[in-house]
Structure formats: structure tokens, C-alpha cells
């Protein structure tokens, strides 16, 4: 997915860009509103992450200008204000969602997915392996005539395998991708989810193989 | 410890003391005047009697004779049963009467009665003597007529008057005391009205007092109002400072947290990963606490001037659930909504209710196991029952009452990050709306059920 991050704090912006790139996203960064406008003129983004306090203006004005100009690119506001009243006014201004600093990237991703799902956009945000199609936004898994919707954790796990078919992933890497930092996850939990995915993938061209002592990988069935 | 002084009591005691002094003075004056008047009457009668006796004196062949007129003594007999004594002396020789009746107050001027009080035969007597010169032969004889009477009648009169006066005085005292009690109460009524107006307020209602106040209290009310204005501005400043501080801290925290996530991904050693994980949890904990503290402050602030806006609770629940759904989704938790068809109208403060709901749901998500359901229900009967049921670890054996106290956390929270303010916020929102928060166990299995019970206004 392609993100535009509008954030004036360079340290934070740098970290966010790096973090999103780790998940395989393309991220452009603008530290001012005029730079953001310039970016939007030359590229299409799936999602905009917008900070409110910017050196050349208020992020809320930018948001309103976007909405008046009928530009429908979803916007998730990154705010330092946690009060309910602040949040409500953001949604009224046309933000699709907001997230309070400091934020969990798993949650940010979940919110992005939810926003995109609501918009019905990013239908092409999907990956294919051996005739099996995984939609990363909706969590829809398609092969042959069958179509199922994965639950969040199943999707996050399968996403890892779809990003690099054939590559072996260790259990601890999979734990990192699947669980939040507040969850207490065990390696057994991974086995449970892998078992579920195997069931989901039954009859498809893909299967998940256990590599003894190393972890799991996805290969052609 | 010093007892606090009561203006009402002081006013009452002072008024009562004045009434007592006045009553006493009244009794004394009446008694004095009455006994003086009685004495005066006795003296007049005694003098008249003595004069009548003196008028009956005559001189026959150089001898002074007396035809004692009966009326002279009978006029004295009218008073009670007092005994009457008399003595007539001619040139200091007793002519008739009681020879031992003392004449200590021998008058020196003619026909002018002299009075005195003596003890005679064991009783107190009042004596009157008048001097007459009865002329016979060459020299006139000096005749002294003395009439005396005991004073028991007088004492009886004085006593009667004293009793009456004391009664009247006592009555006056009681009446004055009652009136002063009423006066003290009524004089202080504006003060207690004002006290009531201030006492009935919420703990942070700092609007100025606008009740009608008498001129004497105006400076006090003015001082109170200006004090409250200063307090309010200082509170607002503190609130702004807290909010501002919370905001300032959030951006660097976000930087640290993001960098930690990146680092976590790059590290391989489990102990290093665990260290970063702990760091991220600490950041999440502080962020969550800051959010709840601000929410709590907001709820307390808004509770004092509760806005009663017409709103749709079903829409509010849907919105809050939508908002939290991605968070729940991370743990594969489903937020089930069992709401009535159509809107659920309610009058209340939408922001507060959202804060309450958000905190309850946030709690429920936090304490729920993965792959579970959280059910939000509205049941409408005499009041609105908004309940959130989860399948988590429940409240265990915790005392429900204590869970809603500030910063109190359940005994079974284990490793879950929390500040203990979530249920307190919900409880305060419920109470601000005249309702209550009810904690119970999930009736359909394991878990907790938190209900907001909101009466219709």
C-alpha cells in the first residue's frame, strides 16, 4: 500500500516510515502542508496519515480543503489529543478515523484496513499464490469457487507467508507479526493458528509446511 | 478543641440576658413602688388616727383629758388583723394607753407627724407621733399622741404584689426569650439560605453565588465569589497545564514507541526482544493512564453543569463500537450489538456517555481472551439498562463496591496494563445522570457484566 505521512516531527516521521516499510508498504513523507499538497499532485495514495499541528497550518484545515475538493483519499489523523470531544470534532471534519499518539502499528494497520474496507477501495490490495488470492484489506481468501473471510490474526499470519512464499519464518518472527505487545503469546498459539490456516487452505494450491526446528513456510500444494 | 461559636446562639443568649435583666428590674421596681405605696398608706392612716386622737384632747381645770374616739382606732383595724397600740403622754407622763410603747421619735414641731419603725412586743411596728400643745391655766401641756400598728398586713400586700410582679416578669422573660429565638433564627435565615446554596453544589461547581443576600452579607458573598473566581481560573490553568503536558509528552512517546517497534523487529535474541517488549508496554501504560486521567478530569468537570442534549443511545453505541472494533479485531474479539430496532432516545451528555462506554469497552477488550465475544445490550424498561458482557476473567471475588473507587484495580488483573480509572469514570458518568453502575458476573458463563443504569429524566 502507498501511504502519505504528513508529520513535522522528523524523528517520529522517520521511525514511522521505517516501521511501515518493514511491513512492505511504500511511504512518502511530507513535513509541511504545502509539501503534502505537492506530493498529492503527483502520486495517488491509498491512505493519508495526518498530524494536526504543522508548521504551516492546521491539519484540520487541510482535511477540510481535501473534503471540499471532493478528494476521497482516506485520512487517518494522528493526534496527541486523547479527549473524546477532540476526537468527535475530527470525525466531523471528515477524518475517516484517528489514532492517539503513541500508537501501536498493529492497531494502525487494523484501522487502515477498516477504513479501506468501509470505503470499498483498495480492491486490488491483494496477493496471489498458486491460484489462491488473499485480499489484504478485506481478509477474503479465494481459490477455485470458494471464498472465505479470515479473522484478523489468521489474516496477519497468512499475510506474512504471502509476502514471501517459500521463505521459512521462525515461530518467534510469526509471534511478533501476529500478536500485540500487550498480548502474552506462546509458541503453542502459533501452532493453533497454523492449524486453522491449514484448514482454511484445504483444497487450494497452497499449503503451509512445518520445517522441523526452523519454523514454517508456504509452498505449492 | 474549641467549640465553633454560633452567631444564632450568641444572639439568642444576649437577647435572653437583656430580657432577664429587664424582667428583674421590672420586678424590683414594681415591688419597691408597691411597698412604698403601701407604707405611705399605712403612714397616712396612722397620722390620721393620731390626729383624730389629738383632736379629742381637751383641758378641764388644768387637767388634760381624753375622750378616746373609737373611730380613731377602728380606721386602723381595717387592715388585716394587725394589732394597734397607742399611747398618750402629757409632759412625758403617760395619760393613757400602753406605757411601754417606745417614743423614740419624739416630734419637735407641732402637728407634724413623725414616723419610725420599731420592734415592740416581738413584732415590727410602725409608729406615728404627733405633738400637741393643750392649753390650760398659765402654761400649756405638751401632749404627744403615739399610734402604732404591726406590719403583717403590709407585708402581705407587698408579698402579693411581689408574687404578681414576679409572675408578670417571668412571663415577660419567657415571651422575650421566645421572640429573641425567633428573631435570631429569622435574622440568620439569609445566611443559612446562602449556606444551603453553596453546600448543595457539586464539588467543582465554582459559579458565583447569585442568591439574594442582605446588605450585611454582600461583602462576604463578594469575597466568596471572587475567591471562587480565582479558584476557578487556577483550576482551569491547572487543567490546561495537565492537558498541554499530556500532549507534549505524546509525540516523543510516539517516537520512542515506533523506534522500539522497529528495533524489536530487527533484534533476534529473546532477552533483547523481551526488554523492548517491556519498554513498549510501559509506554502504553503511561499513555493509557494519561488518557484516563484526562477523561476522568473531563467527566468531573462536565458533571457539574450536566448538558441534557437529546441523543440517540443506539447511534452512540454503534459509533463507539465501530471506533473500538479494530482494537477488538486485533485479538479476534467480536463486538456484538444487541440493540433495539430504531433509535433509543435519551437526554444526557453525549461526550460523557461516550467516555463511559469507551472506558467500559476498552476494559472489556483488555481483559477478554482472544477469540471471544463482547456483547453490548440495551434493555428499555422503567430505566435504560446498557450492559456490556464479556467472557474474560470476570471480577473474581472482588468487592464490586471497591472496584469503582479511584485507582482501585481488581485482585486478578495479573499482567494487564491499567490505571484503575476506567470503572470510576463510568460510575461517575452514571451518577451524574442520576443513575448507577452495576457490576455483576456474566450470567451465561465466565466473564464480567458491567451495566449502566440510566433513569429517564
From TrEMBL, chain A:
InterPro entries registered for this protein in UniProt: CheY-like_superfamily (IPR011006), OmpR/PhoB-type_DNA-bd (IPR001867), Sig_transdc_resp-reg_receiver (IPR001789), WalR-like (IPR039420), WH-like_DNA-bd_sf (IPR036388)
The family database entries (PROSITE patterns) matched by this protein are listed as: OMPR_PHOB, RESPONSE_REGULATORY
Q: Which GO terms describe its molecular function?
A: phosphorelay response regulator activity; transcription cis-regulatory region binding
GO cellular component entries: cytosol; protein-DNA complex
Q: Do you know which Pfam families this protein is assigned to?
A: Response_reg, Trans_reg_C
Give the UniProt keywords, A-Z.
DNA-binding, Phosphoprotein, Transcription, Transcription regulation
Q: Which residues carry this modification: 4-aspartylphosphate?
A: 51
Annotated DNA-binding residue span(s) = 124-220
Provide the Response regulatory domain boundaries. 2-116
- The residues covered by the OmpR/PhoB-type domain are 124-220
Q: Name one GO biological process term.
A: regulation of DNA-templated transcription
> Could you tell me what this protein is called?
Two-component system response regulator TctD
UniProtKB/TrEMBL annotation, chain B:
Q: Where are the transmembrane segments?
A: 161-184
What EC designation does it have? 2.7.13.3
Q: InterPro entries in the record, alphabetically?
A: 2CSK_N (IPR013727), HAMP_dom (IPR003660), HATPase_C_sf (IPR036890), HATPase_dom (IPR003594), His_kinase_dom (IPR005467), HisK_dim/P_dom (IPR003661), HisK_dim/P_sf (IPR036097), Sig_transdc_His_kin-like_C (IPR004358)
Enzyme class name: transferase
Q: Where in the cell?
A: Membrane
Task: Establish whether keyword Transmembrane helix is in the entry.
Answer: yes
- Cellular component terms per the entry's GO annotation: plasma membrane
Question: The organism sits in which domain of life?
Answer: Bacteria
Keywords of the record, alphabetical order, are: Kinase, Membrane, Phosphoprotein, Transferase, Transmembrane, Transmembrane helix, Two-component regulatory system
What is catalyzed by this enzyme? ATP + protein L-histidine = ADP + protein N-phospho-L-histidine
Q: PROSITE patterns under this entry? A: HAMP, HIS_KIN
Please tell me where this protein is predominantly located. Answer: membrane
Molecular function GO labels: phosphorelay sensor kinase activity
Which segments constitute the HAMP domain?
A: 185-236
Question: Keyword Chaperone: yes or no?
Answer: no
Residue intervals of the Histidine kinase domain: 244-457
Matches recorded under PANTHER family:
SENSOR HISTIDINE KINASE YKOH (PTHR45436), SENSOR PROTEIN QSEC (PTHR45436:SF1)
What's the protein name?
histidine kinase
